[in-house]
Amino acid sequence: MRPSSEPTPPTDQIKGNVIPSNLRSADHVQPRPVLWLITAVAVSLSLFQLYTAGIQPLGLFYQRPAHLAFVLVLAFLIFPVFGQTRARGPVGWLIDGAFIAAGFFSGFYIIWNLDEIIARAGWWTSTDITVGIICTLAVLEASRRAVGLGMTIIGFIAILYALAGTRGALPGLGEWMPGILEHRGANIDRLMGQLYLGQEGIFGLPLGVAATFVFMFVLFGAFLEKTGAGKFFIDLAFAATGRKPGGPAKAAVIASAGMGSISGSAIANVVTTGAFTIPLMKRLGYKPKQAGGIEAAASTGGQITPPLMGAGAFLISEYTRVPYIEIVLVSIFPAILYLGTVYLFVHILAMKQGMKGMSATELPLVRQVLKAGWQFILPLVLLVWLLVNNISPMRVGFWAIISVIAVTGLRGAWALYAGGPMTGTRIRDSVLRGLRMIFESLELGARNAVAVSIACAVAGIIVGVVGLTGLGLKFSSMMISLSGGNIVIALVLVLIASLVLGLGLPVTASYIVLIVLVGPALHNEFGIPLLIAHLVVFWYSQDSNVTPPVALAGFAGAAVAGAKPMETSVQAWKFAKGLYLIPLFMVFNPEIIFGGPLPVVLWTGFTAILGLAAFAAVIEGWLFGRMDPVSRIIAIPAIAALFWPDFRIEAAGVAVLILVLGWNWITARRQAAATVTR
């Protein structure tokens, strides 16, 4: 049996593949003692999180600073100042050593002095302010290394904006701001009190969610990955769909939904599942750009697919005070709509190009896959059951991890018992493999959490500045003015803003910044229910993965497929159109989120499915067969009518689409009959 830490290179065969690890892409330049130190810090962070989640919970001003201290130290160890491809050298170690000390000290300073800081209650000492400055600089530098320069620049601009103003530390800068953005400004003491010593800055809600719920589910995903869940989901998807036309592409949609929900990253999803699905798609006849685009669009769907939906779902729960299990439940149907749309695009392409499925000899059997990996289903079932019973998501993550360890250990013990004589050597080797798996999972989970925790810390800086300066209200006024009070134009502006933010921010940070700025306007001024407003922004924040000119998941798909990045991104953008249409449908048809009378819910679900199917058919010019240009033109206004909040107009749109698609079915059958007659 091959240990999970020994990756198998991707091949064109499905049976026996192991998910390749992308964890240590540049660790070869790190000295061995540094790697040991990284492992020690990462494992310590994971154990600390497990302890506070399942044994002894801590208060927010103990949990969040301790988490940030661990994360900053880990970030500066993993990401050297001069890049991961160069040795640090004496100068690099001097700089990184200073930042490591700064990260550790700025996090634990609050823990050591918490009672005194609370007693001062706004009368901060010079030491408080100095440590606040150190912490802010350390967070921004960690963001530059672990998240990207764009996030760091936005955080730095937010700080400059807070200091600009007549009473601020930078009054001259305030003279350059447009009138609507003017504010009185803040001095350094007031800004650091907001960002470092209060609950609305670095240690605010975004980092609080990252330090509790998100970390536990990232760690859960790491345990599943290390124990082979990725291979199980891929094999199961291929066994279910591999024989159908375009089978590998359809398997990519299903497997990516499962893997993306576990990994929490569309890009990581592309390079893992895509390493197997993209070569197979190309072999069956998909163009490289299509194969990469399909995988990018499908992997993006993993972030909106229950039960694990990435960090954003936990933030939605905290911001709206809606239990996480309710977020999961209301997201099931929209996720099915999105993945179904991508699946339909894949099917249409396969039928247009006359593709066939894979042969039975190339595919595993469903019963064989379930027999080999049934243990991966049990933790997910337990997770959902605990959430349904209103257990804290943090505690749910703890027990889910324990269940993974338990079922994997039982499976390993059975394999040991059935594999031959129970010798001391075999028992020792089995135990060592299990312990190695646990430690690798603990390290992987901590490493995977670094970027999202740093991003949430910088997002806390931005949120703190918004609260300090009143920028949220100003932004709402600008939005109302630019849209003229039209809700459709307002949503288009939100979409554009999410795309612009996505050029420099990861998905979670983009959602946090955008919801703080536009959320109040969507809810208070345009009357969109609070939960739907958050879901709209959350869905729109995903578009940076698939929308040119910067489509991160699309670029990853292009690299695996050997295609041009921009062409692949355009394909991903086309396949992922559900990201734009489904949120619109939520706004104008809230029944798909909140429910209602059964006839209304059924009608709404039917119109959503019909509209998305018709949209895919119009884009590709094919459904049951080739669509004529007149049918495609007629279908466009009918699709738009389905979004209109008037039953008569909706019904007219449904009638037109049924006629158009029915005509396409009739003509396709006639053409097929004529072909057979010949």
Task: Write structural notes for this entry.
- Among the domains are: 120 residues, no CATH class; 256 residues, no CATH class; 83 residues.
- Helices cover 74% and strands 0% of the residues.
- The radius of gyration is 26 Å and the shape is globular.
- It has 30 helices and no strands.
- Helix 10 runs antiparallel to helix 16.
- With 678 residues, it is mostly helical.
- The N terminus is likely disordered.
- The longest helix has 46 residues.
Q: What descriptors fit this protein?
A:
678 residues, mainly alpha, 0% strand, globular, disordered N terminus
Low-confidence stretches: 1-25
Summing up helix and strand content along with how strands pair, one would put the structural category as mainly alpha
Number of strands: 0
Q: What is the H/E order?
A: HHHHHHHHHHHHHHHHHHHHHHHHHHHHHH
Individual helix count: 30
General shape: globular
Average pLDDT, rounded to a whole number, is 83
Our Rg estimate from Cα atoms comes to: 26 Å
Q: Report, as a whole number of angstroms, the end-to-end distance.
A: 55 Å
Provide the helix percentage: over 70%
What fraction of the residues are assigned to beta strands by DSSP? under 5%
**Biggest sheet architecture:** none
